[in-house]
Amino acid sequence: MASITKDNELRSFDVPEIARHPGGYTIYKIVLQITPKEITENSYQLVYWKRYSDIRKLYDILHHYHQAIYRPEKFPNFPNKSSYMGIYIYVNIQTKFIFNF
Questions:
Q1: Strand spans (E) along the chain
Q2: pLDDT of residue 5
Q3: Cα separation of 59 and 77, whole Å?
Q4: Which residues contact 18 (CB under 8 A, 6 or more apart)?
Q5: Is CATH 3.30.1520 correct for 2-99?
Q6: What is the DSSP letter of 79?
Q7: pLDDT tens digit sequence for 14-42
Q8: Which of 29, 41, 53, 67 sits at a 20 to 30 Å CA gap from 82?
Q9: Where are the domains of the chain?
Q10: Residues with Cβ < 8 Å from 15, sequence gap 6 or more?
Q11: Is the pLDDT of residue 101 over 50?
C-alpha cells in the first residue's frame, strides 16, 4: 500500500485483489482511500478494476509529465507484469487445491 499526504488529506492506494475477467484477461482491483485530516469519519474509498495495460499507459503518461516539468526526484520504476502474475497463479492454484479441480 502506498500513501500520499496532502495539506488537508491522506490518500492511500492498494491493490488487494486480482481476478480473471470473463474476456480471459487479468484485472486488478485498485482501491484509493481518502481521509481528511480534520474529520477522519468522512473518509471514503474509490474502487477501480483495471487491466495491467491500462495501468501501464497511466504510468507512461505520468512519467512523461514528471520529465516535462523537470522534477528533481527520480520517478519510481514500474513493476514487472510477472510479479503480479505470480500472485494470480498462486491464488489460482490454491483455489483449485481447495475445490479439488
A1: 2-5, 9-20, 26-36, 44-51
A2: 59
A3: 9
A4: 26, 27, 28, 29, 84, 87, 88, 91
A5: yes
A6: P
A7: 888 888 888 888 888 999 998 888 877 78
A8: 67
A9: 2-99
A10: 28, 29, 30, 31
A11: no
